[in-house]
Amino acid sequence: MICPLYISSVSACFEIQNDRPYYTQAPYRVCLNGEEVLQKDSNVFSLFKLTPATEYTLTLEYQSDVLPVETLTFTTSEALTTVSVKAFGAVGDGVHDDTQAIQTAIHFLPKNGCLYLPAGTYLTAPIALKSHMTLHLEEGAVLLGTTDRSRYPVIPGTAEDLSGGEDVQLATFEGNAVPMYQALVMAAYAEDITIIGPGCIDGNAQNSDFWQVYRTLPIARPRLLFFNRCQNITVHGIKACNSASWQLHPYYSDHLSFLDVFVQAPSNSPNTDALDPEACDDVRIIGCRFSVGDDCIAVKSSKIELGSHFKKAASNHVIRNCLMDFGHGGVTLGSEIGAGVRNLHVTKCYFHGTDRGLRIKTRRGRGKDCTIDGVVFDNIRMDGVLSPIVINMWYNRCDPDGESEYVWSREHLPVDDRTPHLGFFSFQNLECTGAEVAACYIDALPEAPIDEVEFKNVSVRFSENAHPGIPAMMNFEKEYCRLGLYLDNVRKIRLDNVTLEGVEGEELVIAHCDDLDIRR
Fold it and tell me: What pLDDT is stored for residue 66 in this prediction?
């Protein structure tokens, strides 16, 4: 069955309902009103160049005799007031600076209007979006970031409210309110914003010095897209690439949809996370493809100062039918999760060549509000993932005190306001081939054991040519090769139909567990 995910006046996104991660059983072709418009093999597909307020009959035909033809009728929405950026003087030749034309067009765009970028390359410094607008990048349109760092304004972490109210939160990096270079595309305290493809937003960092001098910059590098305290954001069908740092970063924002987005950066590019929703609620990430130099998706909720102040957990996230093609972690939680993570459901995803599948990073010092609970991984395929499951409560990066005894001590320390808590985690229907380092590496704090971990219908097969590696970043970290299930400090463990192939040594290495239930 075909289900609409999103329909605008000029584009639409659909999801095919089946039980297969990311890919369909057979390739298919899509016809509109009897004319072929697309060939695909993924569960999510998009259509562009549609006509507003028009009824279409969509037909999906598989290249297989055993799969039925599917038909759906849908109607595009009414036309928005649409103006071309070229009407405001944009050139689109990749040489002329189009910043002023683009920002002026946004400023004068009427409510619920659409700014249209026809095919061309629009060289620009950072721009700011506003409420109730659509940015439409046509096929062949590229919004290209300037390589001149002086053109990126510095946004303060906070600004004083001169009337005596609470400071205004403006900029951030790695969980703290700190100054940052303005993102190439930014919106703050705004609502009802849509960005539609199939064009490209290119940070152009490969031609700047951001990736070379990132360790010495006193100011946080710009994101590609940054939404600060926004509501009702939809990003559909674009390609996002080559950001100076994180690519897509919604921050303290709610009701977000990222649909059929392709995010790309070189595998050796520094900290180019694909999509990092931070302290957000109601996030849909569906049909997206990621291949970057760091984590594909990193769910965050700030460090202890902001987390304990705002107490806004990352909550109600759905990640479905996504392809993680390269990255340090497929879906990562943390390490900046000072307000916790609640109700995360990852399903029907395909992880290919990432270092880890699920990756949780936390440590002492993230705080008592750092509660992670209700995490479900279901119907996941992993191929060539070095360590499919890693939960690490000893993470030592990103903080000046990361190598302190407080972080690395294996003693049972007192539980206090700095101690995080991990609740229930479920891993169901996972098929993993080509693993190398560890099938599962879970290492929790002695004073704060994980409540419960459940494995049901999980199979892991190691590569015959496996190489040793480090599953979890921590002080005194160790290399492993073909390690089975390693769990330390988990109160309750449920293993139901778990099979491992190619393990070196014991299949189960379990310590400090109160309740172990193994079913074959």
Answer: 85
Q: For 496, what's the count of Cα atoms within 13 Å in the CB-facing half-sphere? A: 10
> What's the half-sphere exposure (Cβ side, CA atoms, 13 Å) at 418?
7
Measured CA to CA, the distance from residue 507 to residue 485 in angstroms comes to 6
Instruction: Report CA-CA distances (Å) from 323 to 66, 327, 353, 372.
Output: 26, 11, 11, 24
Alpha-carbon gap, residue 45 to 34, rounded angstroms: 18
CA distance linking residue 108 with residue 209, whole number of Å: 34
- Rounded Cα distance between 273 and 292, Å, is 6
Q: Give the separation between CA 299 and CA 264, rounded to whole angstroms.
A: 18
Instruction: State the pLDDT at residue 131.
Output: 98
| Two tokens, residue 214 | 């990132």
Provide the token pair at 363: 């440590």
DSSP class of residue 80?
P
Tokens 């299930």, located at residue = 485
User: Closest by alpha carbon to 365, among 306, 310, 420, 409?
Assistant: 420
3-state secondary structure of 453: strand
Q: What is the pTM of this model?
A: 0.97
Residues 363-389 have pLDDT tens digits of 999 999 999 999 999 999 999 999 999
For 207, phi then psi, to 5°, come to: -110, 5
Within 10 angstroms of residue 95's Cβ, the number of other Cβ atoms is: 9
How far apart CA 170 and CA 189 sit, in angstroms, is: 9
Residues 144-163 as b or e (16 or more Cβ within 10 Å = b): bbbbebeebeebebeeeeee
The pLDDT value recorded for residue 361 is: 95
Say how far apart CA 271 and CA 147 lie, in whole Å: 18
The whole-number pLDDT of residue 400 equals: 83
Q: What is the set of active-site residues?
A: 294, 328
Classify 101 as helix, strand or coil: helix
At residue 173's C-alpha, the angle toward residues 169 and 177, to 5°, is 30
Name residues of the chain where pLDDT drops below 50: none
How far is 48 from 375, CA to CA, in rounded Å? 35
H/E stretch holding 351 = strand 350-352
333 within 8 A of 360, measured Cβ to Cβ: yes
Contacts of 404 (CB under 8 A, 6+ apart): none
